[in-house]
Design the sequence.
């Protein structure tokens, strides 16, 4: 497994990275491009774009902004209301795992920005079923959240005939350099299905054993092409028009609007201001990414901070070494939430390990390290038959 020579991403990442002749990944190259852009010019381009979507008679909202209540959401709404002068409708999919401070930040948005806000909360019993089912199906208990975030705001756009949706950064472009900054990719049904939803859709979640019916998944159905076309729905990414930096977003949210960071440190990352809308996002959900691909949230955050000039690569490596392998405390809460034992969790999680990254030796899981050499990190919970593809000759 190779690592980027500028940031700390591994070649076997959750998204496709391309490395150049200098061993620098495509994500770093796109960030270099972003630093050289004329962002004032891009802001003017955005103003030209939204003018044809602004409500001319004041009888509808100018746009929709999907929000979680995080520091990036605050920056999105700050930009849309204060810089662009638009009247947005905020839309939130609520996955039931907010930290108290995250819940408080979410509730305060309509007050500090003087906006209307729709918050959708699926049945708690359904969410527990979805957690169990998706963990077993794809090793991602948070699939429901990816689906809800990328679906429900689009449903609202169609229902209320509000064509323009302001998303934040384009995740795959921002992390992996999937596109050039000059490509201006937009949100699409294909982006939602192939990337955000891992190729699964609502109909894959109908499950007799869990008792999940089509009627339970109405919020997960993406609007038809006919409905999208009749409304003229267009989803643009603010990160292509305004320089996107999580540290700057956090500063604006905190200093201007009293946004609160996490009150207790996370087990798997040094950042206190990211992903507090879901107590498991920086915890057990991220631990599963480590189980699959051999890296986690500390790698993600270090890469962003290295690219943004807030951290050196050497400091990033220390963060990876300290946090990426940690099995977090919130696992206990999640196991109680869904009614599962830790032994069952470990066995299912092991079946999703990437053999490009992991191998078995002496009853342990081994992988190569960014700081050099290889180390044993976890006990093996697979049967002898299941272990065969991981044993190196």
Sequence:
């Amino acid at each position: 497994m190779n690592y980027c020579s500028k940031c700390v991403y591994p070649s076997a990442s959750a998204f496709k990275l391309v490395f150049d002749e200098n061993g620098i990944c495509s994500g770093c190259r796109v960030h270099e491009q972003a630093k050289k852009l004329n962002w004032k010019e891009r802001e003017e381009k955005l103003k030209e774009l939204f003018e044809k979507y602004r409500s001319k008679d004041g009888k509808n909202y100018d746009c929709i902004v999907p929000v979680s209540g995080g520091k990036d959401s605050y920056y999105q709404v700050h930009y849309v209301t204060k810089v662009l002068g638009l009247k947005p409708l905020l839309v939130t999919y609520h996955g039931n795992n907010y930290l108290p401070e995250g819940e408080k930040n979410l509730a305060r948005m309509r007050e500090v920005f003087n906006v209307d806000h729709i918050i959708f909360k699926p049945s708690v019993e359904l969410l527990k079923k979805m957690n169990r089912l998706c963990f077993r199906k794809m090793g991602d208990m948070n699939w429901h959240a990816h689906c809800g975030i990328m679906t429900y705001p689009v449903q609202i756009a169609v229902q209320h005939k509000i064509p323009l949706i302001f998303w934040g950064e384009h995740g795959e472009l921002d992390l992996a350099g999937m596109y050039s900054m000059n490509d201006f990719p937009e949100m699409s049904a294909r982006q939602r299905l192939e990337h955000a939803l891992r190729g699964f859709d609502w109909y894959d979640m109908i499950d007799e054993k869990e008792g999940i019916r089509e009627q339970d998944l109405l919020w997960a159905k993406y609007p038809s092409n006919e409905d999208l076309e009749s409304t003229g729905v267009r989803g643009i990414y603010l990160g292509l028009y305004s320089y996107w930096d999580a540290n700057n977003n956090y500063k604006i949210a905190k200093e201007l609007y009293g946004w609160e960071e996490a009150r207790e440190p996370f087990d798997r990352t040094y950042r206190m201001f990211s992903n507090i809308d879901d107590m498991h996002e920086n915890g057990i959900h991220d631990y599963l990414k480590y189980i699959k691909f051999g890296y986690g949230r500390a790698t993600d955050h270090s890469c962003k901070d290295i690219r943004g000039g807030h951290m050196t690569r050497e400091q990033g490596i220390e963060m990876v070494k300290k946090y990426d392998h940690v099995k977090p405390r919130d696992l206990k809460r999640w196991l109680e939430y869904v009614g599962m034992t830790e032994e069952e969790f470990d066995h299912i999680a092991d079946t999703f390990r990437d053999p490009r990254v992991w191998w078995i030796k002496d009853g342990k899981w081994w992988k190569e390290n960014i700081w050099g050499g290889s180390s044993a990190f976890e006990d093996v919970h697979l049967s002898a038959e299941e272990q065969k593809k991981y044993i190196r000759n």
